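Final report, closing paragraph on structural work. Over the funding period we assembled a curated collection of sequence-structure pairs, and we close with a single example.
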Amino acid sequence: MTFSLVMAGLVVFSLFWGIILGIFYYRDLAHYHEPPLKKHQLVLLPFGISYMYVILFFSIIVAYWRWSFRQNSWIKTEHGKNVS
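Its predicted structure, as stored:
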């Protein structure tokens, strides 16, 4: 129950900012004399912005977590080594 409430709150919060930033983007298009968005693009714009907002939000949390615990390793696979 708590997880679903947190997720619903996150969706509402991110869609709110998606709408706000979409309005700014729409106004910038008009200001710079760019062609206006089509209606379906205008409807999908807040969802795209909010999706990116959520991804960036979680990546900042993970980066801060790694920084705070001094986890700065970069584990990569080893390619091209001869195993003898």
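DSSP finds two helices and no strands in the chain. The mean pLDDT is 85. We thank the funder for supporting this effort.
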